[in-house]
Amino acid sequence: MNHDITIQDVFHRFLPQYCETHNFSPQQQLTALCISKCHTLEMGANLSECENCHKKYIHYNSCKNRHCPMCQGMEVDEWIDKQQENVLDVPYFHTVFTVPEKLYSLIYSNQKLLYDALYHAAHQTMEELSADPKHLGARIGYICVLHTWGSRMNYHPHLHTIVLGGGLDAANKWKDKGKKFFFPVKVMSAVFKKYYLRELKQFWEDKKLEYHGTAAHLKNHYEFKALLNSLYDKNWVVYTKEAFNGADSVIHYLGRYTHRIAISNRRIVSMTDETVTYLVKDYKNGGKYIEQTIKGTEFLRMFLMHVLPKGFVRIRHYGLLSCRNKKEKMAHCRKLLNCIQYISKLRGKTCAEKLMILYKKDICKCEACGGNLHSLSLRGRYMLT
Predict the structure, then answer these.
(1) Residues with Cβ < 8 Å from 222, sequence gap 6 or more?
(2) Within a 10 A sphere around the Cβ of 49, how many other Cβ atoms?
(3) What are φ and ψ of residue 182, in 5° steps?
(4) Residues forming beta bridges with residue 45, ordered by sequence position
(5) Mind giving me the DSSP string for 174-240?
(6) Most confident of 58-67, 223-232, 325-334
(7) What's the pLDDT tens digit per position in 160-181?
(8) Where does residue 54 fall: left (phi above 0), alpha (psi -120 to 50 degrees), or beta otherwise?
(9) Greater pLDDT, 254 or 131
(10) Model-level pTM?
């Protein structure tokens, strides 16, 4: 595999051709521009010089776009470090909420509304079932993260939820079911379907929905009504994976999910003047990776489908892990469970200090002689607008 090929190389080669035949949303256009210019002079640069040997170093700025595969490394590590402060030494569960494929075109036409509805329905499902003494009878905590892609970069919106394996009952006492998940998945599926379709139907009645592309036929009242009826009749899929081994594995696993994007550079195998070859999972063959080759413009189209609406919050915390409850409630849980709190290594540190802690890289020292570096001003500074 050629690890030198990056998503930026693909954009450089195929973006001009893509622009001739495809339209962008403003966010897609900004993302394409950011990825194309990431770590180049057009993003701005910092120049430093060694006080001893006078060797000069130039560091180009990253674009910091959340969809850029070249900008996620340090953000993931910082997020993991911060989240570890709220991890308990109890089982955690990974639950995935999916919607029927019939809804995909409508969701893509109404991304902000119907992505939000995913979170609302998952939250209401968790709240309803966890409060029921038949299932648990306690208030739990969970983190929801939206993914919109499958392994082939196809459009596949679904919600990953990491669930704390227990909660606080009405008397503020800890309650759990050991390594057994609280809710039967068939019950979760039915409740999730109920809440999601309730919100979808309300949007329809309030005339808040738009219908583009392959969803255009749903403008017809009878077509939409038929879709709703078929969705009510269908069994929806919600599934839960096994409990994690230890609290530490939870956050590292979660870090992979929270900051994941449609494709990483390491999955790009090769590129020609017309095509891109990348690795996809073959679920019919035990999830082994196989190569898939498509046109370069089609690769960009599929990648840009997963650019989120402006300002959309992708990682959301609920229950005991919500921002307003986390500090007080998690401290109480640690006391009940006799857990030792992890203390952040990175909080309050400078960027240089963080790099040293995380990667043992001292950006204040010359790589040639070990002397101190000092910053130089650049006469010209090009910034992306």
Answers:
(1) none
(2) 17
(3) -70, -40
(4) 60
(5) EE--TTS-SS-HHHHHHHHHHHHHHHHHHHHHTT-----GGGGGGGSHHHHHHHHHHHHHSPP-EEE
(6) 223-232
(7) 999 999 999 999 999 999 888 9
(8) left
(9) 131
(10) 0.92
